[in-house]
Amino acid sequence: MIFSKRYSAAIRNHRLAVDLPATLREQLIDAIASHNHSIRVQRDSDNNWIDNSDTMTETGYMLEQEHPTVAFPAGILDDESYRTRLIELVKHGASENVLDAIEVFESWLAKDRKAAFTAHINCIFDGEESPLRLADGKCLKLDTEFVGVGSTAAALERLGLGPFSGAAAEFAEALREQASGDTKHAISEAHKSYESTLKVLTDLKGATADTLTKELIRQGYLDDLSAEFRDGFRQSVLMALPFLRNRLAGHGQGADVIEMPKSYGTLALQIAAALQNFLIEKYLERHPAKENPSELCDTDFI
Asked: Model-level pTM?
């Protein structure tokens, strides 16, 4: 579902507010236009006719035709192009519908163009100090109540690099679940993301966090710690998130606990962010990055 549908209840109940100032909207329009490219569209599966189009046109068309809840600004003439309608939506539409437009536009991009668009959009959000991010084709809002929200943003963006895309998708899902008020699922998805990152480092599939963290030691990732401290570090630090998942989101909390306070989801996400930033540093020590994630915003995206 598009952003406004995914978070409809949270937006309606004023639990999720999105602010997109005019300066940010103008940059989003420029970003969308700079990544626009030609495409060929077969509109009828029973007809071989192919239309020559572009990603902006198809985004405007899809938003208007397939998502009737998206409110286009008043005053758009019927004969104006879908590309023009899209621009007016991003410029003057409801904030949640602007994020709808970003998601739909990303879905129309060629696979080899998606990463550059995502990086460009996130650099705009970061430059404007917005808590919004685009991850795995979905917009999400980093909770500004997080202590160290920058660490969470860094984890999300760094996970999107190289072999960590699966972990990035799970981490983004954890953030979406937290924003929607489902704390248990947020903790569970944060834990999945952490395990996925451990699996990249250890090259073990189907193992639990306990086995994965032991393998991390066996493979020498913690050799920069004294030998007598390694297992204590593993149990006290690296197993903190698995503990939360097992006790709070799994089956270990007992029959009396039904609702999980939001604060525990926030804690799980912060722990996940810190641990995954640590693991990525360990990974990069053995596999130096071809591109410094901190320099992505200096890239010429056009």
From this structure: 0.65
